[in-house]
Amino acid sequence: MHLPARVTMPLLTLITQQSLDEDYLHVAERRAAGAPRPSRARPHRMAAVVVAVFGILVTTAAVQTSRNAGVTDAGRATLISQIDTRRATVDKLQQEMVTLREHNVGLESQLSDVTSAEEAAATRVRNLETTTGFGPVTGEGVRIVVSDAPNGDATQAVRDEDLAKLVDGLWVAGAEAISINGQRLTVLSAIRNVNVAIHVNSRPLTPPYTVSAIGDNRTLQANLLSSTLGSEFFSLAQQLGFVYSMQNEDSLTLPAARFPRLREAQTGTAAEQQHHPNEESNP
User: Fold this and answer.
1) How would you list the strands of the sheet with 203-205, edge to edge?
2) How far apart are CA 115 and CA 170, in angstroms?
3) Of 164, 172, 145, 162, which is closest to residue 227 (Cα–Cα)?
4) CATH number reported for the structural domain that contains residue 174 in this entry
5) What total of structural domains would you count in the chain?
6) Has residue 67 been placed in a domain?
7) Residue at 109 is within a domain
8) Which end of the chain is more exposed for a tag (fewer CB within 10 A), N or C?
9) Residues 161-170: pLDDT tens digits?
């Protein structure tokens, strides 16, 4: 298959030929119309001018295109460089985000463990406060009020060993917490006479003495009366004429005992104390 000559012919030759053909056609039409014959040199001069102008335009366009190509290539290279830089920045930020997310998951897991440990420790502290007497408690129990014998002499007054016997009987009977006139009893509490007054936790008390004991009020009184210490106390109370009463309570609230001031005990291990022998703990 052969392509037409106008397809394979160079562009500049084609334009020149077409321009000349149009000039010849114009001259032929003028001759047919009886117009005077122009000079032979004019068509050739016109063609030369057209070819020259076209050549200048083609050259100018080529030069401008070459210059623009350089600028375009430089701009494209800059854009590609910026895109690569931004892509690298995005990749880095995404990696940091993944790392931070993993770190956050780890911190949440640690927080959950710490929270669970804190709750367990708080529960243990509350239980210890209840059993040791350094935390307030509320519950059912028994209230016992004891006072000196009316119009009696000094031998008929309630003494420290009498209250101690009653308290020990209540512990044996199943009491979980005990107070005397609002003074909560702990393992460090002392009940003793100072002159004519009974001191509990180093605080003087005056009769009547109200002994509040939290425990199962369905069995606490019966257990107290059947215990050796309880029966001894009530037998002594009848002999000396003490005035006393005992009744069940659906709700008793006992205050917390005050923390004692440390005088000899020090914080830390023995090795730490040997390393710092002159340091003492704050109360």
Assistant:
1) 191-194, 197-200, 203-205
2) 38
3) 172
4) 3.30.70.1880
5) 1
6) no
7) no
8) N
9) 999 999 999 9
